[in-house]
Amino acid sequence: MSNDAATAANATSTRITTPTVEVPEAEAPALGLGVSLPPADARAKTEGTFPYAADLWAEGLLWAAVLRSPHPHARILSIDTSAAVAMAGVRAVITHEDIPGERAYGRRIVDRPVFASDLVRHHGEPIAAVAADHPDTARLAAAAIAVEYEVLEPVTDPEKAFAAEPLHPDGNLVRHIPLRYGDPEITGEVVVEGLYRIGRQDPAPIGAEAGLAVPRPDGGVEIYTASTDPHTDRDLAAACFGLEPDRVKVVVTGVPGATGDREEPGFQLPLGLLALRTGCPVKLTATREESFLGHSHRHPTLLRYRHHADTDGRLVKVEAQILLDAGAYAESSSESLAAAVAFACGPYVVPHAFIEGWAVRTNNPPSGHVRGEGAMQVCTAYEGQMDKLAAKLGIDPAELRLRNALSTGDILPTGQTVTCPAPVSELLTAVQDFPLPVLPKDAPEDDWLLPGGPEGAGEPGAVRRGVGYALGMVHMLGAEGADEVSTATVRVHDGIATVICAAVETGQGFSTLARQVVQETLGIEEVHVASVDTDQPPAGPATHGRHTWVSAGAVERAAKMVRTQLLQPLAHKFGMSTELLQIADGKITSYDGVLSTTVTEAMDGKELWATAQCRPHPTEPLDESGQGDAFVGLAFCAIRAVVDVDIELGSVRVVEMAVAQDVGRVLNPSQLATRIEAGITQGIGAALTENLRSARGLIRHPDLTGYALPTALDAPEIRIVKLIEERDVVAPFGAKPASAVPVVTSPAAVAAAVRAATGRPINRLPIRPQAAVAASNS
After folding, report:
1. What does the DSSP 8-state code read for residue 732?
2. What Å distances lie between residue 185 and 58, 308, 382, 506, 720, CA to CA?
């Protein structure tokens, strides 16, 4: 049998299996938008029976392992795979020489090699991959590959990247945005300056990356993975494999949570190459260390600010320099920089603004999309400036913010008019008026929880309480001319509706929302959302609230088309228009009560279906002066943080976070509250504990012991004080994204509260213990 025939025979007999999930029967929930419909997969996920990519299996399975560079910067002199190839059980070893198609990839800028060939540009960069009969064999074989390096001096300081030798053929500068708005000569009567540093936060997904690649009889390949943007991943894979896109299929498995681009193509591409080489299914389950080394992180950022104001505290001018460390490759740095520059002044009215923004390549780990990218870093800086300005003027920090708060009709420093609801003052007033938590001295001593946890080493007498405020903003959907479009199909048969849409459920609640939309539009209780693969039309990535807007909007349009198909025969029969008929609780009734029937009876065994698209109004790139209508819409949030700080040890406990948020419309109350709480907790991690540290480009402690995620003991009382439902008229349902803006705002609020408790400037995140020691004790 030829190799091609063996490949085809093996692929034909391959069977993919996943654990069987049994969902117990439950009482029928309330239907439609505005109710807390529980997720269909909630029980399976909480019991640990939900099938993730790491659970996949196939007949004839091989295991993959990837050899990664131990150096952040080095020249590759030679790669010797002979020892690995000779090992028993090894079926294939591949390097850059074995890539039949494009050898570099990138979702936005194609600059990242699948395997390093001549230069290594960051610690953990892939060099080679192995497929073997057993995972241990694969890892041993990868370790047996001999690579001769000429170690080079790494460029790890982004400020030095401007003058350093080019680390990449495209140079070290990814993007420069000079924003110019107003009169550069104007000055304020009061001026404050500040320097701020934001650390490298990791997405830290609950489950590390995993995937399975299966060769097809036609010479193509299917990749099963937790992709959050399957069509883009398919196109990248096809280019790498030298295949037409229709010969590569990406099937989305259960996604174990995502706060960014969940699956890096760098984990998927070696799998497909190995499957095509061996003719066998190949699986990879990354270790936590490989996960830290392989995926992108939040951009470490250096920010210099100068705020000008009059003696009443009203802002006159903001000047800033923002430097994003893109790491070794461009990734989403251009988009992150645009958000940082555009929102550098925050949700405040600023008549004059001059912002310089840069994103540069270094030999640090690659940076990419993490929830609230760009906006989170500048929020910490501009809110630090507002606290400095309040202290210098002797004005209450909340009052100073109210005097400058943005509202609908105001103009951003990019020249774009805020046309969406912007209830910034109302949000801040809500958290300001909310009662403060009880002081420890007013509670039983047994209930005290000192900074450092229940067994904290501090003394109650050294604890100081601080209260801080922050206002944050994010943009919705993509920006700067991104074509935001999604396609959905709704099919109804035998009283059951099915939604087909390639919008990936990442934990943001799209599957639940899609069911609610169909239930409300068609009055059908049983709604199923089909699993996602690239045979479906594209829906785009699961970022910036896209699927709540464009994908759920497409579902609504398709469901309304089916509704028209359903109602037209009845309307014609009774001589009325479809607008005079309504569907509720599974029944169709007319305005005058003459017609009353059930949806099932009206269907009469027919199958109805419709496909629709949703595309928001277009945007435009920022021009050479940082001007342009770059954003579809904006969302806002106000948070008041209350912290207890041990001023001798510098340990911090977040006591309470009071949040008021501009949500447009509440579509699922329980789901919305969960998203806000999760976003705040992620922000607290960025404020106090999360920092993927590196020394000269080498990641230190790439595991969950060295990288400190907040736990249940770190989570404070989160009080959702107010949800403002002022609908955005251009958005389907009028809703706004919920989870990114609390991530953006909460670190700044915690920093402000620690500032208030200690009298220290707090200009670095995460907040180090030595920075939280009170000024009188330092």
Report:
1. G
2. 68, 12, 21, 48, 43
Q: Which of 71-85, 312-326, 449-463, 737-751 has the lowest mean pLDDT?
A: 449-463
Determine contact, residues 601/484, Cβ cutoff 8 Å.
Answer: no
Tens digits of residue pLDDT in 239-260: 999 999 999 999 998 887 766 5
Average of per-residue pLDDT across 687-691? 95
Environment class of residue 17 by beta-carbon count within 10 Å: exposed (0-12), middle (13-18) or buried (19+)? Answer: exposed
Q: Quote the strand ranges of 663-761, DSSP E.
A: 694-695, 698-699, 717-724
**Sequence-separated (6 or more) residues with CB below 8 Å from residue 167:** 73, 121, 155, 161, 328, 361, 362, 363
The owner of tokens 């309307």 is: 571
Taking each helix axis from N to C end, the angle separating 375-393 and 397-404, rounded to the nearest 10 degrees, works out to: 110
Q: Give the list of residues 6+ apart from residue 471 with CB closer than 8 angstroms, or none.
A: 346, 347, 348, 383, 401, 405, 424, 427, 428, 636, 637, 638, 745
- Which residue stretches of 343-443 are H helix? 375-393, 397-404, 424-433
Whether residue 209 contacts residue 261, with contact meaning beta carbons closer than 8 Å, is answered with: no
pLDDT for residue 441:
66
Phi, psi angles (nearest 5°) of residue 437: -65, 160
Q: CB of 543 within 8 A of CB of 258?
A: no
Q: Helix crossing, 740-758 with 375-393: angle to 10°? A: 30
Asked if pLDDT for residue 473 goes beyond 80, the answer is yes
Q: Where are the beta strands (DSSP E) in 615-713?
A: 631-646, 652-662, 694-695, 698-699
- Residue 605, classified by CB atoms within 10 Å of its CB into exposed (0-12), middle (13-18) or buried (19+), is exposed
Q: Percent of the chain scored above 70 by pLDDT?
A: 93
Q: String of b and e for 145-181 (b: at least 16 CB within 10 Å)?
A: bebebeebebbbebeebeebeebeeeebebbebebbb
The three-class DSSP label of residue 387 is: helix
The SS3 call for residue 613 is strand
DSSP 541: -
Q: Residue 520: what are its φ and ψ, rounded to 5°?
A: -70, -40
Of 589, 610, 591, 611, nearest in space to 601 by CA: 589
For residue 769, which phi and psi values (nearest 5 degrees)? -55, -40
Peptide bond into 742 cis (omega under 30): no
User: Residue 63 above 70 pLDDT?
Assistant: yes
Distances (CA, A) of 65 to 143, 211, 290, 303, 382: 9, 12, 10, 39, 44
Closest CA to 642 of 484, 508, 397, 464: 464
Q: If you write DSSP's letter for every residue of 162-223 in order, what string do you get?
A: TTSPPSSTT-SEEEEEEEEES-TT---SEEEEEEEEE-------SS--EEEEEE-TTS-EEE
Residue 132 neighbours by CB distance under 10 Å: 27
Which residue matches tokens 């990442």? Answer: 506
Classify residue 613 as exposed, middle or buried by CB count within 10 Å of its CB (0-12, 13-18, 19+).
middle
Half-sphere exposure of 7 (CA within 13 A, CB side): 17
| Helix (H/G/I), strand (E/B), else coil: 356 | strand
Which pLDDT tens digit goes with each residue over 361-396?
A: 999 999 998 989 999 999 999 999 999 999 999 999
Q: What's at 433, amino acid-wise?
A: D
DSSP 8-state class, residue 40: T
| Residue entry with tokens 């035998």 | 494
Residue 584 banded pLDDT, cuts 50, 70, 90: confident
Distance CA 355, CA 344 (A): 8
Dig out the tokens for 148 from the structure: 């001769």
CA distance 740 to 371: 6
